[in-house]
Specification:
The chain is mainly alpha-helical and 88 residues long. It has helices spanning 16-40, 51-63, 72-76. The termini are far apart. The relative contact order is 0.06.
Length: 88
Amino acid sequence: MDADLVPSRVLKQTRIDVMFKKETETRSKLSKAWAKWFRSNGVPGNKADCPHFRSALKLTQELGTRFIVPTGNEIDGADLDASDEELP
């Protein structure tokens, strides 16, 4: 028997219900973390629907780990006189 044709270990595919459960748990954990931040800072939850917030969040996701999330000082010092076309 050819040793290259026999896998060295048995590969097992993750069941789809296990994958969805893990995804649901992750989404729940993320929702709770955001809820905690909004509530502890007195920000109403409906502010998460603000187009500017959604846009900033989407850009953060796209950039991934290449950039560090700006600090409060950087956010306060940002030039907000830019036109809407320049803002994400």
